[in-house]
Design brief:
Order of helices and strands: HEHEEEHEH
CATH architecture of the domain at 2-92: 2-Layer Sandwich
Radius of gyration: 30 Å
Distance between the termini: 85 Å
Structural class: alpha+beta
Helix content: 25-40%
Strand content: 25-35%
Length: 145
């Protein structure tokens, strides 16, 4: 299992269920697929923009979890089979960005890139003059010559 711990990645799962009673079933489904919840699930009841499986309201739930890639893929496939889950998506979260610390004896960099300043000039656009058909035809003849 220690070897498996290195292979685990962070994911976010978001899903719509028919009622609040179905949330615990989906969370236990996570543990059945060797997934470990990292954050507490958050839920919110909402009115759907369109009917899904004849439901006009649903509970939207999301939370972060840690699992191996194979387990996350199986979980995603099996969630589509569950009748109480209306929609679901699993996203792979980016790994944390590594911040390099300065070595001993070297000063820390405090320089920042200069900010871009807005150098655009404001241009006033005058309203176009209306031309009569004769004046327009005259302009076109001038251009074509």
């Amino acid at each position: 299992m220690e070897n498996n711990e290195k292979d685990k990645k962070n994911y976010e799962i978001s899903f719509l269920v028919k009622s609040e009673d179905d949330i615990q079933g989906v969370l236990s489904f996570l543990t059945q697929h060797n997934a470990e919840a990292i954050t507490e699930p958050r839920a919110k009841k909402l009115a759907l923009a369109y009917e899904i499986q004849k439901c006009t309201e649903a509970v939207f739930v999301y939370c972060n979890f840690k699992a191996a890639g194979v387990d996350a893929k199986k979980l995603e496939q099996n969630l589509t089979m569950k009748h109480d889950v209306l929609r679901s998506i699993i996203l792979s979260l980016p790994s944390k960005i590594r911040v390099e610390t300065p070595r001993e004896g070297t000063p820390a960099k405090t320089e920042r890139a200069p900010r871009m300043t807005d150098t655009r000039e404001e241009v006033k656009i005058s309203s176009p003059r209306t031309l009569s058909n004769e004046a327009l035809e005259k302009k076109i003849e001038e251009i074509l010559q």
